[in-house]
Amino acid sequence: MSIKQLLIEANAIQVGVQEDDWQRVIALAAQPLVNQGYIHESYYKAVIDNTLTHGAYYVFDEGIAIPHARPECGVIKNCFSLVLLEQPIAFGDGEKADIVILFGATDGQGHIQDGIRAIVELLDNPRVMQQLRAAKQWQEVVDIL
């Protein structure tokens, strides 16, 4: 299943979010996935703990954050959640991001290979990035993806 299909299925696209606390952004990104039974609350808490311990290694120069944790931290089903922030914010002591894609994978291989590869392929297009940043409604995001 594609990122687009997983986002729609989980009702996990949030656009125009105004938030300045990275921990709340991660919790916000996780909430639809918790509500739909894709992850346990322990998963996003593990993402926050990992960030506090290891830093925000998942933030890339392009302003994209891809927070995640190990599958055993509470993933029930493979999933993605997308949050588009109005303004970039710093994650931990790291770089700033305004596109946040929380993902969970049920196994270690999918966790690293499939999840991150799918996200990078999607966001490796500058035009797509520009369109996502300009989107004002979730339906626009669906159309872009």
UniProtKB/TrEMBL annotation:
Organism: Serratia odorifera DSM 4582
Domain spans labelled PTS EIIA type-2: 6-145
Pfam families: PTS_EIIA_2
Keywords: Cytoplasm, Kinase, Phosphoprotein, Phosphotransferase system, Pyruvate, Transferase, Transport
Name of this chain's protein: Ascorbate-specific PTS system EIIA component
Gene Ontology molecular function terms on file: kinase activity
Location within or outside the cell: Cytoplasm
Task of the protein: The phosphoenolpyruvate-dependent sugar phosphotransferase system (sugar PTS), a major carbohydrate active transport system, catalyzes the phosphorylation of incoming sugar substrates concomitantly with their translocation across the cell membrane. The enzyme II UlaABC PTS system is involved in ascorbate transport.
Family annotation (InterPro entries): Ascorbate-PTS_EIIA_comp (IPR051351), PTrfase/Anion_transptr (IPR016152), PTS_EIIA_type-2_dom (IPR002178)
Biological process, per Gene Ontology: phosphoenolpyruvate-dependent sugar phosphotransferase system
Cellular-component GO terms for this entry: cytoplasm
